[in-house]
Design brief:
Blueprint lengths: L9 E4 L3 H12 L5 E4 L11 E3 L5 E3 L6 E3 L2 H8 L4 E2 L5 E5 L2 E5 L3 H7 L2 H15 L4 E2 L1 H4 L5 H23 L8 H4 L4 E2 L11 E5 L3 H9 L4 E4 L8 E4 L2 E4 L2 E2 L3 E4 L16 E11 L9 E4 L7 E4 H5 L7 E10 L10 E2 L3 H15 L4 E3 L11 H17 L4
Parallel strand pairs: 1-2, 1-16, 2-12, 7-18, 16-22
Antiparallel strand pairs: 3-4, 5-11, 6-11, 7-8, 9-10, 13-14, 14-15, 17-20, 17-21, 18-19, 19-20
Helix pairs in contact: 1-11, 3-4
The protein binds flavin-adenine dinucleotide and uridine-5'-diphosphate (UDP).
Length: 392
């Protein structure tokens, strides 16, 4: 464990994209001394990857595909990695038929006979426009009988069961922004994302993080849970019981800092099941979503993502979603955003506002469904601000 008596300008909690980008920026651009604490035994947060026994590069916390339209974010990360050009394609296994997801015009022609599909295509284009995206909730409001029937098909076969598995409730009862991430796409483009910049770090995410954190002003301490070290007192922030003069950027779950005194913030967690086979390929796509059957939500085959040329071995991952209970080894992955939970989050957030040098940043700390690029962007913005204001 790093010597906490050494004086640091910043204490950063968590070495995912939020914490790592801030650490690098403050250390490099701000010339600040940074102490980065991470409770896991490795850096990278949920973007961490590593080779398994078969030599296949595994995303240990679920498949991570980088995509962004934000040039600053892309350029920034490109300082620490080259990119393998990779366009993610997902299909939904609907009773054995593999339909492109997001449901698009190619999916349409696989579901209906040519004549009906052509009619539906022109109705969709007339109603929404070619190359436009329309959320399933919007499409279900369409009053045209045939489009309503199409919406019902997509709802029943793509969204309903998958969402029940992932969130434990129906698409009507979750934040509409969640299903809006995968809109019906009036296009023949089968890619999962349409962003300008897409890819996978050429050597993996972990080497990207290693490069980012390799700076003389950054001290890193792994396997260190800050819950045991940081406390909030009337006189300010205490680190191991002593006043901490620097600023703190915290990227973990905020309720845990206050012993969950208003109740635990609800999250969904995942169980990952890995299987390795003595074959070249398990499936033809990076990810296959199981939208009408199975207990897992999706299967990802990592060689599609890594581009590794390994013969007669392949590894897949099945994802099972369940409610987060804080049981040992469970990790909160998805905030469950709704009015009640967001209000509960605000109560914890308010407790932190008394401490002007304490910042909440990241998917957990902000209780939001952020992709990696959004987090990198927010970390760059916060660092800019702290450097401009002279920090501490
Ligand atoms: P995290 O990566 O969660 O990092 C937080 C870190 O803080 C962790 O390392 C944690 O151990 C540490 N920590 C927490 N509490 C403490 C404590 N008390 N003391 C010390 N350390 C602590 N995004 C995409 O852009 N593309 C994708 O394809 C994609 N796929 C995803 C798939 C899954 C299954 C999941 C769950 C997420 C996916 N994401 C994807 C989102 C991506 O993981 C997040 O945007 C990103 O990890 C957020 O970074 P972060 O630093 O905020 O959080
Ligand atoms: N979704 C679905 N069926 C699919 C794909 C997505 O019902 O085949 C819904 C589901 O509610 C999911 C949400 O859309 O949680 C967002 O999907 P995304 O692929 O963005 O989820 P993530 O990769 O973040 O888990």
């Amino acid at each position: 464990m790093t010597n906490l008596d050494k004086s640091y300008d910043f204490l950063i909690v968590g070495s995912g994209f939020a914490g790592a980008v801030c650490a690098r920026e403050l250390a490099e651009q701000g010339n600040k001394k940074v102490l980065l604490l991470e409770k896991r035994s490795h850096i990278g947060g949920n973007s961490y990857d590593a080779l398994n026994d078969a030599g296949i590069l595994i995303h240990m916390y679920g498949p991570h595909i980088f995509h962004t339209n934000d040039e600053r974010v892309y350029k920034y990360l490109s300082r620490f990695t080259n990119w393998r050009k990779y366009m993610h394609e997902v299909v939904g296994n609907v009773h054995g038929k593999l339909l492109p997801i997001p449901f698009n015009l190619n999916s349409l022609y696989m579901v209906y006979d040519n004549e009906k599909a052509m009619r539906l295509e022109s109705k969709l284009v007339r109603a929404y426009g070619m190359d436009k995206k329309v959320t399933i909730l919007e499409l279900r409001k369409n009053t045209d009988q045939e489009l309503a029937e199409l919406a019902e098909y997509v709802y029943q076969n793509v969204f309903l069961y998958y969402t029940q598995k992932q969130w434990g409730t129906s698409p009507d009862d979750i934040d509409p922004n969640v299903t809006a991430r995968v809109p019906v796409y009036i296009s023949r483009d089968n890619r999962y994302f349409q962003d300008k910049f897409q890819g996978i770090p050429e050597d993996g995410y972990t080497p990207l993080f290693e490069k980012m954190l390799s700076h003389q002003n950054i001290d890193l301490s792994l396997s260190t849970d800050v819950k045991d070290l940081l406390s909030f007192s009337e006189v300010g922030l205490l680190l191991q019981g002593k006043p901490f003069k620097g600023a703190v950027i915290y990227t973990g779950a905020v309720d845990e800092l206050f012993q969950c005194k208003f109740g635990r913030l609800p999250y969904r967690t995942l169980d990952f099941e890995f299987e390795t086979y003595d074959t070249n390929w398990y499936q033809d796509y990076g990810t296959v979503n199981y939208t009408v059957d199975q207990l897992f939500t999706r299967i990802t085959e990592f060689k599609h993502l890594s581009g590794q040329n390994i013969e007669n071995k392949t590894t897949i991952m099945k994802e099972y979603s369940k409610a987060y209970t804080n049981a040992l080894k469970e990790i909160p992955y998805y905030a469950i955003n709704n009015f009640d939970n967001n209000s509960l989050y605000e109560k914890y957030h308010e407790l932190t506002l008394k401490y002007p040098d304490f910042y909440l940043l990241g998917r957990l700390a902000e209780y939001k469904y952020y992709n990696m690029d959004a987090i990198v962007s927010r970390a760059l913005e916060l660092s800019d601000l702290l450097i401009k204001n002279g920090g501490v």
